[in-house]
Amino acid sequence: MDKIYHIGTVGQPWGDAEKAQWLSEQQIKRSFFDDVLPAIAALNNDFDVEQYGELDYQHVCGKSYPLFAVKSRNWQSNKPTVLVTGGVHGYETSGVHGALRFLQTKAQAYSEKVNILVLPCISPWGYETINRWNPQAIDPNRSFGESGKASEAQQVRQYLASLDTQFSLHIDLHETTDSDNSEFRPAKAAQDGTVNKNWNIPDGYYTVDDAEHPCPALQKAIIDSVAKVTHIAEPDDEGKLIGEPMQQPGVINYAKATLGLCGSVTDAPLVSTTEVYPDSPSATPEQCIQAQVAAVTGALEYLLQQG
Fold it and tell me: Where is the Peptidase M14 domain (predicted)?
């Protein structure tokens, strides 16, 4: 079903006035400073917590948002290094809290064998306003290439480059929500001057492999791990998930570097983007968080089995 967005003129891309109208409609709905920062600070006892950047949005909402990375201690160059990213899309709640839960419950045990780096909340303004975009109406998850314009993404790129580290595995934690069809995709189409055509939101968990550097065995290991916690998405009548052909049960492919996705931000040979469905009548918020943790641990077990 076509859905016409309330901002802009059909067939005409947004200009500054439309973006300003969109921004004026955004409201703070929850607190990064109450929900996320204390959890990050509490990890100081067991991990190295580093501030890698800041988002100065004083002109938008009167706030500046510190950006934090959490690192396992005793990094050793002979161990594989693993990156976990959450909150690239700030509204995807279990991505943020799944990254934190992994740190709180599982990361220390794995840090004996791997170096672990977690960026729990890359887009804190998006977290607070329950938004996919940043205040400039830019999607951070299309901005991880060299020409990307979202500061959220570019500060991650700069920080990772400063580490001069070769990553073996990168897991990027996301959700697919009903609001993708009701709000975010219609807004994107309006901004582009096109009309959105909805696809079915899959009921269940799935992963996105990299079409340019696929690692299907990793995706299977993740799916098998998550299936112990929550249900895996079934394909639609066309054998697709979110409009993309299913490659194996619960897996689709995207060209991550071409699209500027977070999954392309390192040269890691093993990459997966998780997609949890929090609006499912068959999944609780707690299950969604556990599914993200299961995705990370399933990926780590696969990595360690490769020797």
Answer: 28-303
Give residue 189's pLDDT band: very low, low, confident or very high (50, 70, 90): very high
The domain of 46 spans 2-305
CA distance 103 to 11: 46
What pLDDT shows up at residue 3?
Answer: 58
- pTM for the whole thing? 0.97
Residue 18, domain CATH? 3.40.630.10
Is residue 289 classed as helix, strand or coil in its secondary structure?
helix
Total domain count for the chain?
Answer: 1
Catalytic residues, which ones? 275
Does the pLDDT value for residue 21 go beyond 80?
A: yes
Residue 123: which of 144, 156, 152, 99 has the closest Cα?
152
Assigned token pair, 115: 């170096």
| Residues 288, 104 contacting (CB under 8 angstroms) | no
What angle, rounded to 10 degrees, do the helices at 185-192 and 16-24 form? 160
